[in-house]
Design brief:
By secondary structure, the protein is of the alpha/beta class. Helices cover about 30% and strands about 25% of the residues. Helix 1 runs parallel beside helix 6. The protein binds 5-O-phosphono-beta-D-ribofuranosylamine.
């Protein structure tokens, strides 16, 4: 059974969706860089062990990442899931977990990498928006996309409503993509290629809620 660690910084609604999904992998531990993150309560309520590793206590990014790396090794983790983890990871850490670490980002990547995606979508006047599950590579929000949830932007939408509507989709596509990894439907090969049901994954699997 695949052993999963979830890295969080905040509310952890995606962690909750992963817990509720009864994955065929096991969520072994949750790491937070913020002691006050509500995600830690969610983990404890579900009997999942937690580790608080505060980035502020380390002299630099590499030192902080190294402590996380050691914790992941101690838990014997196969798959790292970033779920609202608000730290940029060092290249060394990312390389150590390449092909074994995924993230969810609130935009239709490759559009709107980085922060404030909902407002940027509104500013541009896009009619479609959504979220993307992707493998993590050293370049921010640029790894192979696995799954996307798509919504139509309505005339009355603001950044708050888009945040909420995208969140609903996140809670569907993240557990689904993770389950595909756990049960072998998605495979990351040594050469970096990603297979979906044994075939090269050309573009992310799309979930539409327009
Ligand atoms: C989500 O919007 C996700 O796309 C982004 O961080 C947020 C985490 O929310 N990466 P939550 O903590 O899972 O509720």
């Amino acid at each position: 059974m695949i052993k999963i660690a979830v890295l969080v910084s905040g509310s952890g609604s995606n962690l909750q969706a992963l817990i509720d999904a009864n994955l065929s992998g096991k969520i072994v531990g949750v790491i937070s860089n913020k002691p006050e993150a509500y995600a830690l309560e969610r983990a404890k309520k579900n009997g999942i062990q937690t580790a608080i590793i505060e980035h502020k206590q380390y002299p630099n990014r590499e030192a902080f990442d190294d402590v996380m790396h050691q914790q992941l090794l101690a838990w014997n983790i196969d798959l790292v899931i970033l779920a609202g983890f608000m730290r940029i990871l060092s290249a060394k850490f990312v390389q150590s977990w390449e092909g074994k670490m995924v993230n969810i980002h609130p935009s239709l990547l490759p559009y709107y990498k980085g922060m404030h995606t909902h407002q940027r979508v509104l500013n541009t006047g896009d009619t479609l928006h959504g979220c993307t599950v992707h493998y993590v590579t050293a370049e921010l929000d640029a790894g192979q996309a696995l799954a996307q949830g798509v919504i139509q932007v309505n005339l009355h939408d603001d950044a708050h409503s888009l945040t909420q509507r995208v969140h609903v989709l996140e809670h569907i596509i993240y557990p689904q993509a993770v389950e595909w990894i756990c049960n072998g439907t998605i495979q990351h090969l040594e050469n970096g290629n990603v297979l979906y049901k044994g075939q090269h994954l050309e573009k992310p699997i799309q979930f539409c809620n327009v």
